[in-house]
Write the structure tokens for this entry.
Amino acid sequence: MSRHQRQPIDAGTVRDRLRRVTDPELDRSIVELDYVDELRIDDESVEVEFTLPTAWCSPAFAWMMAVDARDVLETHPAVSEATIRLHDHMHEAEINEGVNDRLAFEDVFDEADGDVEETRRTLDEKARLARQYRAVDALLEAGLKPEQIVRLTLEDVDVETDSGTSRDEDEDRAVVRVDDALSICVEAEPIRRYVEKATALDVVSASTDALFATPAGDPIPADEFETVHKRGRLAGTNMSGQGHVCENLGEARIGGPSAADD
């Protein structure tokens, strides 16, 4: 289909795309967190305005969210340009100019301590461990034993992983093949979210790769299962605690649902 034959993108599709963008500190969608204030669509151009819970949120985190929002929209075939506007942030001018002019974070914040991509990798791994904890918990609740869980591979899990889109009720269960004689059904969402993050980080790539991994990305020895599982719980607890703080700050600052949800 030629560019001129494509249907223009609508607000619902833009919002679904933005659901894939997460606050890197909380591993939650910026749509779910109600950060998105307004969407404007003009033919093949999309403009997104967003506000964070506080004016002093890390500029590196704000930068990541703005870049991810721009990139996730510009990968849609009906969008030729996405412009992202951050409001009410102490570094909004630098972030808006840098992200929309396709500059590097280090060029805009030349006094920044550390590489933004290294920060992103650290937060991504923390999010992966937190998601792994929830996925493993779902399998434990279904009756699997630790030694069965650490033997699972990517091909043992049947779950769709197209993130950020609405799903039917019959997609709420995932099938996990434990061995040649046993398969179980478990809640799909924690499994799906874990697989999405693990594959995005290349912790799991080949179908025969171990599904779950240590913080170093190695298969989990059965005798280290409890230790690795506790690391995941700590990562999730840390993110949840920070999330409650941000929710309270955001509610006090932003108020009710934004226009983007209308």
Remarks:
- The CA atoms of residues 21 and 68 lie 6 Å apart.
- The first strand starts at residue 22 and ends at 23.
- DSSP finds eight helices and eight strands in the chain.
- The beta strands are 22-23, 28-29, 36-42, 45-51, 81-87, 157-158, 173-179, 182-187.
